[in-house]
Amino acid sequence: MAPNQALPHTSARPGAGRIRRSAAAVVAGLTAVTLLSACGYGSKSEDDKPNAAAPAGDSASGAKLSADTVRIGYFANLTHGTPLVGLQEGIIQKELGATQVKPQIFNAGPAEIEALNAGSIDIGWIGPSPAINGYTQSNGEALKIVSGSASGGVKLVVNPEKIPSLDDLKGKKIATPQRGNTQDVALLNYLAGKGLKVNPDTGAGDVSVLRTDNKVTPDAYSSGSIDGAWVPEPTASKLVTLGAKVLLNEKDVWPDKKFVITNIIVSQKFLKEHPDVVEAVLRGSVNTNAYIKANPDKAKATANEAIKKEAGNALPAAILDPAWADIDFLDDPLANTLQAEADHAVTAGLLKKPNLNGIYDLTLLNKVLKEKGQSPVADAGLGAK
Fold first, then answer.
1. Could you tell me which residues belong to the region Disordered (predicted)?
2. What are phi and psi of 139, to 5 degrees?
3. Most confident of the following: 106-110, 193-197, 339-343
4. Which of 135, 134, 139, 124 minimizes the C-alpha distance to 41?
5. Is residue 358 part of a domain?
6. How many other CB atoms are there within 10 angstroms of residue 67's CB atom?
7. Rg, Å, the chain Cα set
8. Residues 212, 30: contact at Cβ < 8 Å?
9. Is 327 found in the same domain as 246?
10. Residue 16: pLDDT above 70?
């Protein structure tokens, strides 16, 4: 592992076919998964494979930009609703003209960062912690954050019989999706604020933090192997349908109830060589977010259709509706909260104080917003140098 590695990663989780197992086998595998996470940089899982073409929508037509194709990475979950809707409805492809989108689905941020570094993708939707990690590990040379995408959509959900209040977390077992991921950082920081000590590497301490794939978490909860989880949507709402209770909505611990959950990042090499393509993708993202706000029910259905196409199953209304309602799709990257999340990782013991100067380049986003008569967004002093 490289010295001063930020937010150490787990390897990407096994594919869907390998996680359909009994709850007992799932629990038995948790320790092994944690051990495997010790120093991996995020190799691709079986699900992290490129698709042959964009999910749906209009095929590429019109003028071609400076690149024949643009390879876009994202997750098939609701906090990545912008690419789900924008690609499914053809909104992003429309802005790209004859430049063809080649999408790639990921299950974990480290695998997406690895793909960006390897040149397998050009642009990606991703959470703040992997973006911070990718930037700091490359000494500021790998990527830029060029836009926001979503805020909210993260909750602490628990077994109400075992954890009736936030003062009853000591001695309990709480799951997060991945060691050093955005939700893991948030939980460790929250526990530290309550005076509860947890080893950031092993997850052992006053609260046992178990790092496991979101696909596994519902089975682990049903079997009683975990007492709760700090997870993004739709996993949080899935647990509620299994009898869990929302003990804390993460937005309630943030000023103005807003914090970045999804950014858009781009390879610095691709940004330098193809700024017109990046601008077109950002224009498509801004248009998609406007479409989501103007057509919330249609957008929700479109996102669910895309999830069904990628994951094999659509979300039932009992999960989809509360999950979608808790996510705010927006263009502002909420840069001040990115710095705060980095500070939280330092507090949690997952990261040495990072230098994030230059992590943002919002030039093209603000150009698009100006064209639409909207106010520019700020980079909190962390803009391009």
1. 42-62
2. 55, 35
3. 193-197
4. 134
5. yes
6. 18
7. 20
8. yes
9. no
10. no
Dist. CA 99–CA 347, nearest whole Å: 44
Helix ranges restricted to H, the chain: 16-19, 23-36, 81-88, 91-96, 109-118, 128-137, 182-193, 217-223, 235-241, 268-273, 275-294, 296-311, 317-325, 335-348, 363-371
Q: Compute the distance between CA of residue 33 and CA of residue 255 in angstroms, rounded to an integer.
A: 35
- Cβ–Cβ under 8 Å, residues 229 and 174: yes
Same domain for 162 and 134? no
In degrees to the nearest 10, what's the CA dihedral of 341, 146, 284, 320?
-10
Query: Are both 113 and 147 inside the same structural domain?
Result: yes
Q: Yes or no: say if 244 and 123 are a contact pair by the CB < 8 Å rule.
A: no
pLDDT of 314 > 50? The answer is yes
Instruction: Assess if residue 132 is contained within a domain.
Output: yes
Q: How many structural domains is the chain composed of?
A: 2
* Pairing state between β 69-75 and 100-106: parallel
pTM exceeding the 0.90 threshold for the entire prediction: no
- Per the CB < 8 A criterion, the answer to whether 132 and 359 are in contact is yes
Question: Is 56's pLDDT higher than 50?
Answer: no
- Average pLDDT score over residue span 36-51: 34
- The answer to whether residues 354 and 132 touch, using CB atoms and an 8 Å cutoff, is yes
**Cα separation, 212 vs 215, whole angstroms:** 8
Q: Are residues 279 and 244 in the same domain?
A: no
Whether residue 316 has pLDDT greater than 60: yes
In this prediction, what percent of the chain has a pLDDT beyond 90?
73
Give the residue numbers spanning the domain of 199.
Answer: 35-40+154-256
Q: What angle do CA 102, 54, 261 make, to 5 degrees?
A: 80
Tokens for 42, please give them.
């995020």
**CB neighbours of 128 closer than 8 A, spacing ≥ 6?**
182, 260, 261, 263, 337, 338, 341
Q: 207-241 pLDDT, tens per residue?
A: 999 999 888 999 999 999 999 999 999 999 999 99
- 166 and 203 inside one domain: yes
In a domain, 52, yes or no: no
* Mean pLDDT score of the chain: 86
Lowest mean pLDDT among 34-38, 154-158, 321-325: 34-38
CA distance 77 to 350: 25
Give φ, ψ of 31 to 5 degrees: -65, -40
Q: Any idea what the CATH number is for the domain that residue 296 is in?
A: 3.40.190.10
Distances (CA, A) of 357 to 224, 237, 245, 344, 376: 44, 36, 39, 17, 19
